[in-house]
Design brief:
Layout (H helix, E strand, L loop, with lengths): L21 E7 L5 E7 L5 E6 L5 E4 L1 H8 L5
Antiparallel strand pairs: 1-2, 2-3, 3-4
Length: 74
């Protein structure tokens, strides 16, 4: 039996509909912030999550994600 590696960090259930049918993608933004993009296959909710200081996940607004992902101008 082969054990699959653990997936990206993130919640087990959708924050909107509580479905467990989630796609999670771990990424590092340009500024070094570790985030997980979570997309629910049931209700199409999408969120960008970062780990908060207390170990829970905090949802980031898309404007914050885009600002942190932008390349610095020379």
């Amino acid at each position: 039996m082969t054990t699959l590696p653990a997936g990206p960090p993130g919640p087990d259930r959708c924050s909107r509909c509580r479905s467990g049918a989630l796609t999670r993608l771990a990424m590092v933004l340009t500024d070094g912030t570790d985030v997980t993009f979570v997309s629910c296959q049931a209700c199409e909710q999408r969120e960008w999550l970062a780990v908060a200081e207390d170990g829970t996940f905090a949802s980031l607004p898309i404007s914050t994600v885009l600002a942190r992902a932008a390349k610095p101008k020379p």
